[in-house]
């Protein structure tokens, strides 16, 4: 056998071995109670069409230490982003001389439940909007301020703050609004399409290998009710589209632009899969 082919075969075998280890473990049987007071729904009956009987938060797949960090809001580093987001909410910006609070006043009241329903249909744009796009539109149209660039620190903080106002509320995406069902279909197709040199799809990890380990990481169902999420390995808040792009990159495929139609459709579908789970933002993951 040609030594170059032998080397390639060995490399491919190494890649396969690194991708999914033999170890398998069920999600832990535990209850997420924040600060010993607020119980969070981390398990829920799956809605029709989801290939699991029960949807389970990624919190159940994390180590004891990581779960404990999320359960303590004082220890949770993501709460610093919530605090920063509140500052931004009340800060005047743009030529109109307005802040978010100028129109929406107390976020605890005006934004309660909002984050649990996104992405949602935007009739003017003719497409689903997530919170990032919603905020950018308001900055431009209402505040006459510059839109945030993707993953700008203030964008992540403000989205985290707004999403946190729905903390503990169940995720619920309205597929009956506008053309959401067509976007759901597109997102589902994207979820199951294998891409990249590793020929993997979202389902390869989060369905076919759910419960297995990829290197040292325990593969969850891939529910997104905790995004934006604080990731310990990055010491930073991570947005959903950042995570999508990171996963696609890891399959050695070219990843789409953030907020592209491809990723917006995927966000609709994946968020829907977690229907009934509580908003955990800011969740903590490894």
- Number of alpha- plus pi-helical segments: 11
Q: Which quaternary structure do these chains form?
A: single chain
Count of spatially separate domains: 2
Structural class: alpha+beta
Largest sheet: number of strands, sense, barrel closure: 3 strands, mixed
Q: List how many beta strands DSSP finds.
A: 11
Q: What is the approximate shape? A: globular
Return the average pLDDT rounded to an integer: 92
- By CATH reckoning, the class of the largest domain would read Mainly Alpha
Would you give an account of this structure?
- By secondary structure, the chain is an alpha+beta fold.
- It folds into two domains: 23-76 and 170-285, Cytochrome Bc1 Complex, Chain D, domain 2 (Orthogonal Bundle); 78-164, Orthogonal Bundle (Cytochrome Bc1 Complex, Chain D, domain 2), CATH 1.10.760.10.
- It is 40% helix and 10% strand.
- The chain has eleven helices and eleven strands.
- The strands form five sheets. A three-stranded mixed β-sheet has the order 10-9-11.
- α3 crosses α7 and α8 (180-192) packs across α11.
- The longest helix is centred in the first third of the chain and has 17 residues, at 3-19.
- The termini are far apart.
């Amino acid at each position: 056998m040609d030594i170059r082919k032998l080397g390639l075969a060995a490399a491919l075998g190494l890649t396969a071995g690194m991708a999914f280890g033999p170890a398998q473990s069920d999600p832990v049987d535990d209850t997420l109670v924040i600060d010993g007071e607020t119980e969070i729904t981390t398990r829920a009956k799956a809605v029709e069409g989801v290939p699991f009987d029960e949807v389970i938060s990624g919190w159940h797949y994390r180590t004891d230490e990581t779960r404990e960090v999320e359960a303590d809001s004082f220890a949770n580093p993501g709460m610093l982003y919530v605090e920063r987001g509140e500052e931004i909410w009340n800060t005047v910006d743009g030529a109109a001389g307005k802040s978010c609070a100028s129109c929406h006043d107390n976020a605890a009241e005006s934004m309660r439940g909002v984050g649990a329903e996104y992405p949602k249909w935007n009739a003017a744009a003719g497409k689903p909007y997530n919170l990032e796009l919603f905020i950018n539109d308001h900055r431009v149209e209402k505040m006459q301020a510059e839109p945030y660039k993707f993953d700008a620190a203030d964008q992540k903080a403000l989205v985290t703050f707004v999403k946190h106002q729905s903390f503990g509320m169940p995720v619920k995406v309205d597929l009956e609004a506008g053309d959401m069902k067509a976007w759901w279909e597109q997102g589902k197709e994207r979820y199951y399409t294998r891409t990249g040199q590793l020929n993997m799809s979202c389902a390869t990890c989060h369905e076919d290998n759910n419960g297995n380990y990829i290197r040292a990481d325990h593969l969850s169902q891939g529910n997104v009710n905790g995004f934006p999420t604080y990731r310990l390995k990055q010491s930073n808040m991570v947005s959903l589209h950042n995570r999508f792009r990171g996963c696609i990159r890891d399959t050695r495929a070219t990843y789409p632009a953030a907020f592209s139609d491809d990723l917006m459709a995927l966000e609709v579908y994946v968020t829907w899969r977690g229907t009934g789970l509580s908003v955990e933002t800011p969740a903590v993951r490894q």
